[in-house]
Amino acid sequence: MKGLPRLITEKKSPRDIYLSKRRTEKIVTLVLRIGVLAAFIGLWELSAKLEIIDPFIFSCPSRIVSTLGSIDPTELFKHIGYTLIECIVGFLAASLIGVAIAVILWRFIKLREVLEPYIIVLNALPKIALGPIIIIWVGAGVQAIVVMTILICVIVTVISVLNGFMSVDAGKILLLRSMGASKFQILTKLIFPANIPALVNMLKINVGLAWVGTIMGEYLVSSAGLGYLIIYGSQVFKMDLVMSSTVILCLLATVMYLAVAGIERLTKKKFNID
After folding, report:
1. CA 181 to CA 176: how far, in whole Å?
2. How many CA atoms does the CB half-sphere of 19 hold within 13 Å?
3. Which residues contact 260 (CB under 8 A, 6 or more apart)?
4. What whole-number distance in Å separates Cα of residue 7 and Cα of residue 101?
5. What span, in angstroms and rounded, lies between the C-alpha atoms of 147 and 138?
6. Average pLDDT of the segment spanning 61-77
């Protein structure tokens, strides 16, 4: 009828409904993550206040904040800087070296067949056992810590990346060969693009391993760094300093992981990967 307002209802498309559902799920996941962390911190603090746990041994959030506030900021950032640089250098070097070795092993089949058992053995070898040898080889300094980080990461990188290379559909490789493509063209046009998710996952794994290698190296030989603070704090029984350094390590590792996650989002967007 004329003069009556028309009610227009817009019906959402299936795509809009799906995207809205995905956004809601992400928000719920984020809230739950924050909630778990807040509950853990609150329970830890409450347990220390009620003396369910000994705050002198286990520390607590309030004591950690107090300890961090009592440290000279210049001194603290010096230790953070040492550890962060060692970790980033070792992380990048191990990732690049590991990918390069994986490419060589993919390119030369006979070399891969010969070296495969040795790679498995090296992966099983506890790298901390090589600590004294590394110090003799490269000296007692930052270089020893970086080498330790590389050794921790590089074998895992080689294995994970090589497995990704080998999983590419053989039919596609055969098709490119039949069209006259060289090994380099197959590598750059097929193998690498097909393994972008595997390469990003390798970086995620190396984030954790790089921090493990850095702290292990600082345990062996260091005069500065967060690992040094942990060792010093345990020797003089300052557990608040130990826990404070550990919390800083967790925060730095989280930031580094988020950076890699950002790279993952960019690559997925660029290459339209779901």
Report:
1. 5
2. 5
3. 200, 203, 204, 207
4. 66
5. 8
6. 89
